[in-house]
Amino acid sequence: MNEKPISPCTTNFDRINKNFFDTNKGWNLTFDAIPDLIAILDSNHKIVKVNRAMAEKLNTSAESCIGTNCYQVVHNSENPPENCPHKELLKDGLAHSSEVLEKNLGGYFIVSTSPIKDDDGTVLGSIHVAHDITERREVEKDLQKTLDEKDILMKEIYHRVKNNLMVLSSLLNLQSRYYKDKDIEEVFKEIQNRAKSMALIHERLYKSDDLKHINFTEYLETLSNDLYDAYTPDKDLIKLILKIEDVELDVDTSIPLGLILNELLTNSLKYAFPNGRSGEIMIELQENEEGKIQLSVSDNGIGFPVDLDYEHSDSLGMLIINSLTDQIDGKIMLEQINGTKFTVIFENQEF
User: Which H helix or E strand runs over 144?
Assistant: First the structure.
């Protein structure tokens, strides 16, 4: 006798029995097969039904939970907890969820409640589902510990780099005393200030909660005032004006930009006001209309030499400025109206 082959789908369906889900037994078996902890609650916080997973977590039977207050059984409390999502659901009829540590259930859970309503929309209770996230929280805890240890290590590195740069600066200062030549002494002083400008960045990073970015505004103020004090014996002759907005920059931008500022301000302080001439130096930091960061150093001194091409100069200071401007993908411009104004424009890196 030739029999018609039975498809796998038909066979599986027959094994389950097509009427299986129409029976209470079928739905109970399905309910108990769900690994999340499930409880059906009425509007008085009474347990109507729990699945096997919930009962096992409570070390009791599903039947013994029925009719008890959920907060007594689950939380060992006489009142619902403050963050109880079922309590919130009874107020507004909406679904709620919260992440909780439930010691009585042995870990962390995301608890979600969805309203159960009758045909008229009246809330009869809720279905209460607790998903165990204890393992995930432990992984997060270990990861956070690793990140904290990394931050401590990075802070220590920044601290040591800062200390080493300050030691270098001090050695340069000591070495310069052995030379009577003013030009050589000036070279040592400039190198010393470059080391200090980088040390200042690392000091900011060491003290910051964010090891990737610094408040460049505070750094700019400190660096500018330090250079002003170093090169201005008579502060009645030369005034330093700062017009700066609050800007946070990536550390990879802050270090070269700090060195650029060091060179531009040093040039103005050294050369713009010879022979006791008085004047003003202004430093401006702002975001322009195109959303780019703009740093300007201007003075009303004698002006930049007209025969000097600042983009192709052999001067070490200008070579440093142009090279570092390229490093931050920036653009530098020179204006010579009533003195000298250098402006560096660049894109701020996305955080």
Answer: helix 134-176
